Amino acid sequence: MRKLIIRYKFFLIMIIFTLIIFMINHDIGINVLNTAFSSLLQMLTVVPPIMIMLGLMDVWIPREKFMKHMGESSGISGILITILIASIAAGPMYAAFPFIPVLMRKGVKFSNILLFMNAWCVIKISTLLFEISGIGITFTFWRFVIDLPGVIIISLITEKMMKKDEIDNLYALAENL
């Protein structure tokens, strides 16, 4: 029981905090519950298809293919493939997180994993189209021109700054998931 409480302490603290808000101001409490429920529904529509896709990717695409095209010796082609995959992805940022352990188990280079996460956030096609409609093509173009090399450079620098044993530990953790 104690382990369960420790594991879900943040969730339990948020429930207590929500109850306190609800007792202090009923309207704000209702808004908090509506927001939480809306977020839960959104996650339930996004996460199951992602998990199915991950399962299929894990089974259908051999480790050797990932290592060849996105692994340690992939070079510029690995960077381009990573950007392509991340830019055509759909869904919010939290949908990208389940991909990370799968990519690690498949032998994808660490900088390409970092690039995948950054590109998912910043240069996804759906985001660019939304941005063009809201802010305009000029701003979106220049943001893209700055962000594209930026995400590549940040990924490469971050990998270089990390110690090899730290990266190896992350890969070992991914194997146990």
**Count of discrete domains:** 2
Approximate shape? globular
Low-pLDDT windows of residues: none
Report the order of strands and helices: HHHHHHHHHH
Distance between the termini: 23 Å
Rg, nearest Å = 20 Å
**Number of helices in the DSSP assignment:** 10
Total strand count, please? 0
Largest sheet report: none
Name a few traits of the molecule.
0% strand; globular; 177 residues; mainly alpha; 10 helices
Helices and strands in order, then pairings?
Blueprint: H1 2-7, H2 9-24, H3 26-60, H4 63-70, H5 75-88, H6 99-105, H7 110-122, H8 125-135, H9 137-161, H10 164-175
Helix pairs in contact: 2-3, 5-7, 6-10, 7-9, 8-9
How would you explain this protein's 3D organization?
It is globular and about 60 Å long. The protein has helices at 2-7, 9-24, 26-60, 63-70, 75-88, 99-105, 110-122, 125-135, 137-161, 164-175. Helix 6 (99-105) packs across helix 10, helix 7 packs antiparallel against helix 9 (137-161) and helix 8 packs antiparallel against helix 9 (137-161). It has 177 residues and is mostly helical. It folds into 2 domains: 1-49; 61-175, no CATH class.
